[in-house]
Design brief:
Helices cover about 50% and strands about 10% of the residues. The chain is α+β, with helices and mostly antiparallel strands. The protein has one domain: Orthogonal Bundle (Cytochrome p450).
Length: about 400
Amino acid sequence: MSSDTVTTETVEAPDFPMTRGCPYHPPAGYESLRSKGPLARVRLYDGRPAWVVTGYAETRQLLVDPRLSSDRTRPDFPVLVPRMAAAKLTALVGMDPPEHDIQRRMLIPSFTVKRVNTLRPAIRRIVTEKIDALLADGRRSADLVPAFALPVPSTVICELLGVPYADHEFFELQTSRMVQATSTAEEAAAASAALVGYFDDLIARKEAEPGEGLLDELIADRLATGQLGRTELASIAMFMLVAGHETTANMIGLSILSLLEHPAQLAALRADEGIASSAVEELLRFLSVADELQRVAAADIEIGGVVVKEGDGVYLPNAAANRSPEVFEDPDTLDVRRGSRGHLAFGYGIHQCIGQNLARAELEIALYELARRIPTLRLAEPIEALGVKPGGSVQGVFRLPVTW
Ligand code: HEM
């Protein structure tokens, strides 16, 4: 591409991030970006231009390209919304090799399919308790965000890490301040400092009185042996807690909403737990809640007919890749039986989600059990009244009022 063309596109570039019109469909603007080619120019809130990748093949290619950096401490790392730079998510997802790989290797054994399968009975118990509580309440109506979608993954990640669930109101509030696009930079910085401080104290308490959980294992095996420092461990723990409940909570909420809006799909799941795994893969593809993966080019990269220059910000919205018509037949249709393969909802390459097996188990159990035990579940308000989370956040709805 000639530099003239780049200049013209920069002037005309649309604003990014974009907010969804319908909570379960990507923003309409993604299609007009796609029509410009696999990579298109956008403008960030501070006026900085950046690239958005909508091509499926190019997204995969770039996510394994070592010339794209995830290092959020780089001064040229592109900031989508002001709170992002302040939220200090600098463990794992915000690091490059070799430091990234060292942290990742410490955590991987706790999230294998085999390890997660041992957690399934605990997940089913937690889901059953929440549904029992809903049914015991005579009102036959509830907001499923605070009553189900949030507490299920929050309780699970607490049990896994060894974090007291009694502290959930504190960390859920801080997490939402860190990740909501509407938070100011000051709010996000204060929230992330509060969470790191919380983990610093918790680590000290656990050193004095060890308990059971991943955090206790990391203290014994890595902190005590000097392989991890206290601040590094606190920041890993904070990221695991945030990543472990925020994405899954939004995914549970948005999945329920989508199934309620597609009653034949919900009926298919209710009738057969055997399709729960296929349904979850399709919902992951269809909803792509952790949209907008972000990177910065550490060198010039020629791809998709353009040159991404060193220092350019690059966004890879998996909601665009996951609706690619050349990869997924009829991509805008929700079909719980198709068992989508090759979707990028958990990312791709070295940062691919560590918690994906855990998230799948939680989603399968939560969605099937809710469908089975409350068969008359329906939305209590029109979908337009629910409020879509703005672009630059994990995608989801703020409220999910239902009745049965
Ligand atoms: C449906 C739920 C979830 C979705 C959609 C999701 C999505 C993602 C995505 C897209 C990435 C890649 C980010 C990037 O490349 O920049 C990622 C990374 C990560 N996720 Fe998840 N996630 C989910 C649940 C979880 C859970 C339950 C955990 C458990 C602790 C978790 C822990 C992580 C970690 C630690 C990383 C960073 C991995 C690395 O950088 O090596 N996630 N996730």
